[in-house]
């Protein structure tokens, strides 16, 4: 069995680590590229959201490298994510790809539905070993998030342009190569040291912008044109409303690990503008605005794929949330036609606006 799964930013480091901990052979698709998107857009439904198209392209490219089993998360709506796996599986079969697909989704009747699906991947491995592997994957996601967070603070202050990107790539490689918990601890320490060694100007003034929105577009740099890097090089310190390890703790561990930032804080701050779940991360997007405003961020950028229902609901509310909290919000909608030049122009204009607003406020 050669297992693959679609890309979503650095998720591969944690899922690959978890599967290899169980001695399962992993075939990673190449990083998402123009070719991936072209393949997905060619074979996927035209009005499907971009994540489906990129997932499809990833799975076609992984098959070319010999993968025969897909492991995917499932869901139960209300957005289209609930039937993504089945749609992708049908398309792949029609195209002649002979994949076995295991969808890990919330069970309908009893937990044995989920455990029997997990068994299709793990075989006869003991549950203790499986739990250890999940914990190991989680620790990798924590390490990845830690160095990414450092990059957000270092990049706008770096003295030599591009140094942060080089250091981050090296730090992530260290974490990816670790194959035991002990090795991972050392790799994380080395990774952080690599990041700390980037020369910075600590007194350089920076603008602070929070990136919020749909999880896939936030985490996958190909889908968002590497917006964190573009903004960092414009002298902007960013934060993201979603980190992988927080998502795992909130959704898979049911918040069992305490003392870790949680998106629940955003959900609790969405009222009175939005009072219920609308699918995806729509509720978190609305509630993140007051939280970031209180934390002193100067602006918010909402990012989501074209036709993403939960984020369209959030977008319709954001002008009121923005006015109530006196913080500018810009929305970016991504699809296969989005171009980088147009994006950079819009980001430059938004950063200019925030800087002027900040200067005027400081002068008064
Ligand atoms: S949250 Fe949005 S982008 Fe993600 S599957 Fe649902 S509709 Fe598509």
How are the SSEs ordered, and which strands pair?
Blueprint: E1 2-4, H1 11-21, E2 25-26, H2 34-43, H3 50-64, E3 69-73, H4 84-94, E4 100-104, H5 111-122, H6 127-154, H7 163-177, H8 181-196, E5 207-213, H9 215-219, H10 227-233, E6 236-240, H11 244-251, H12 264-268, H13 282-294, E7 299-305, H14 309-325, E8 329-334, H15 340-363
Parallel strand pairs: 1-2, 1-3, 3-4, 5-6, 5-7, 7-8
3D architecture notes:
The chain has a four-stranded parallel sheet with strand order 2-1-3-4, with helices on both faces. Strands 6-5-7-8 form a four-stranded parallel sheet, sandwiched between helices. The model has no long low-confidence stretch (mean pLDDT 94). The protein starts with a strand and ends with a helix. 54% of the residues lie in helices and 11% in strands. Helix 4 links the parallel strand 3 and strand 4. By secondary structure, the protein is an alpha/beta fold. The chain has 15 helices and eight strands. It folds into three domains: 124 residues, Rossmann fold; 64 residues; 160 residues, Rossmann fold. The site of iron/sulfur cluster (SF4) has 12 residues, from helix 14.
């Amino acid at each position: 069995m050669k297992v693959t799964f679609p890309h979503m930013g650095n998720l591969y480091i944690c899922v690959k680590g978890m599967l290899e901990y169980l001695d399962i052979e992993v075939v990673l698709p190449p990083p998402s590229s123009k070719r991936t998107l072209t393949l997905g857009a060619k074979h996927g439904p035209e009005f499907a959201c971009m994540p489906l198209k990129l997932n499809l392209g990833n799975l076609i490219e992984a098959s070319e490298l010999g993968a025969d089993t897909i492991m995917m998360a499932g869901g139960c709506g209300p957005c289209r994510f609930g039937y993504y796996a089945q749609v992708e599986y049908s398309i792949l079969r029609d195209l002649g790809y002979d994949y076995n697909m295991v969808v890990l989704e919330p069970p309908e009747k009893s937990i044995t539905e989920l455990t029997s699906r997990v068994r299709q991947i793990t075989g006869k491995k003991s549950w203790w070993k499986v739990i250890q592997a999940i914990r190991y994957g989680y620790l990798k996601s924590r390490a990845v998030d830690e160095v990414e967070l450092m990059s957000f603070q270092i990049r706008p202050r770096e003295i030599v342009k591009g140094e942060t990107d080089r250091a981050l790539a090296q730090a992530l490689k260290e974490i990816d190569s670790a194959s035991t918990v002990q090795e991972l601890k050392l790799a994380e320490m080395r990774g952080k040291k690599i990041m700390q060694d980037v020369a910075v100007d600590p007194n350089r003034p920076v603008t602070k912008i929070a990136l919020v929105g749909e999880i896939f577009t936030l985490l996958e740099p190909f889908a968002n044109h590497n917006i964190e890097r573009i903004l960092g090089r414009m002298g902007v310190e960013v934060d993201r409303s979603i980190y992988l390890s927080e998502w795992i703790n909130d959704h898979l561990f049911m918040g069992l690990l305490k003392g870790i930032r949680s998106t629940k804080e955003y959900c609790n701050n969405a009222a009175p503008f939005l009072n219920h779940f609308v699918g995806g991360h729509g509720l978190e997007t609305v509630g993140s605005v007051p939280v970031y405003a209180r934390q002193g961020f100067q602006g918010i950028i909402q990012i989501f794929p074209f036709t993403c229902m939960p984020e369209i609901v959030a977008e319709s509310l954001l002008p009121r949330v923005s006015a109530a909290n006196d913080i500018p919000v810009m929305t970016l909608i991504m699809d296969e036609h989005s171009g980088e030049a147009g994006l950079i122009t819009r980001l430059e204009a938004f950063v200019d606006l925030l800087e002027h607003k900040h200067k005027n406020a400081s002068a008064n």
